[in-house]
Amino acid sequence: MTYREAIEFLETLYDSEKDIKPRYPDSLDEYYAFLELLGNPQEGLRGFHIAGTKGKGSTAYILSEILKSQGYRVGLFLSPHIFDIRERIQINGEWIGEADFARHMEKIKPYVRARGWRSVFEILTTMAFLHFKEKEVDFCVFEVGLGGRLDATNVIRVEDGIITSISLDHTHVLGDTVEEIAREKCGIIKEGMRIISQPQRRSVERIIRKMVREKKAGVYFLGEEIPFEVVRASLNGTEFYFADRKYTVSLIGRHQALNVGVALASADMAGVVEDEEKIEEALKNLSFPGRFQILKDDPLIIADGAHNVDSARRLKETVEEVLGENVSLIYGSLRRKDVRGILGVLKDIAKEIYFVPVNSPRSHTPEHLKEEAVLLGISGEVCETLERALSFASRNPPVLITGSLYLCAEAVKLFSAPPVPERP
User: Among 120, 255, 400, 405, which is 20 to 30 Å from 309 by CA?
Assistant: First the structure.
């Protein structure tokens, strides 16, 4: 099987990321049965499992870099991707090669319909299991795709887990309240695990602590059991204290300090931190696409996702702290997002707004976004493409491209080359 044939086969499978009305399994039983046919590649992996609504991708990346700085060979599984589907499966920052991708797919293909119909996300998760085991990684870091309890990544049995900020999102699947969503996210908690959590609203914290007790696990909250304080954020990065030690991280925003904090705590609890100076150096050189990423300095153009109201609030706070002025906003969104709620927050930092489509079948039309804005008393312009919106917004910088992470991915591609070359 060639790489192109592997991609073509993958495209024949169900992809919830492209479905306007995504469907999800009622249990993981069929997936477990499928993995058994492949020899249970998920078993025996040592690592970390990360769930949450906001920041879990950044946290997974940060944790992998911390582990790498300590000399470990680290597998990282992320979603969605920015440049190429292969970036979802990495070892020490290197994407899975096309030949390995095709070879793993050839092994998986005969069993895809043996136990129900496997999805694109399940196949990629399985490929990560196979790849990490074959390459004998020291640790693997898995970002949950959606929720936690019924996510394909939840078949792993690891000792350490992280829960990032929990808020309302994917309510059509996970529940209508933040407490229902928290219960789904806490589905990753298993007996004996060490759980590190970002600060949560009180009702969510109670749920996490209750589920930890039921599973006879342990939990440590940043800012409570773990000393933590953010100092400041600027365009040069973010400063914070963790356990009485001052750190500077190149990622921008107080929320990124929280992501670093839980990653540091989890690595420390796992007993893998040996050289603090190497960690400090690694944190100063982090670069994660589409997360308050400066795409251009003159005029200043920034891309950052804001897929729910909570992430919009954090984005607003970051803009106010690090820029100190309003922005020309370019906004695009997928369906089933709280567009009105998000725009209600972002309007306070926008001097003008341009509505654009997202490169996804689930995209809202720019016209619909403008209709939602009008209901809030917000005026804005409809643009057929991101490039056209940029041509207008760039005349009145700074420019902020936000909304769907898929839109941020489009923006990153316009200004950046892939971080690793294509391989045969």
Answer: 120
pLDDT along the chain (424 residues), means of 10: 96 84 82 96 97 94 98 96 94 97 97 85 97 98 93 96 85 73 94 96 95 96 95 97 93 96 97 95 94 95 93 96 97 93 96 96 95 94 97 97 94 78 42
β-pair partners for 160: 48, 194
The CA distance from 181 to 204, in Å, is 9
CATH fold, domain 3-283, is: UDP-N-acetylmuramoyl-L-alanine:D-glutamate ligase (3.40.1190)
Beta-carbon neighbour count of residue 36 at 10 Å?
11
Q: Are 109 and 9 in contact (CB under 8 A)?
A: yes
Give pTM, 2 decimals. 0.93
Q: Which two tokens stand for residue 25?
A: 């399994």
| Separation CA 136–CA 339 (nearest Å) | 44
CA distance 344 to 339: 8
Residue 97: partners with Cβ closer than 8 Å, 6 or more residues away? 86, 423
Which of the listed CATH numbers 3.40.50.970, 3.90.190.20, 3.40.50.150, 1.10.760.10 matches domain 293-415?
Answer: 3.90.190.20
Alpha carbon distance 424, 422 (integer Å): 7
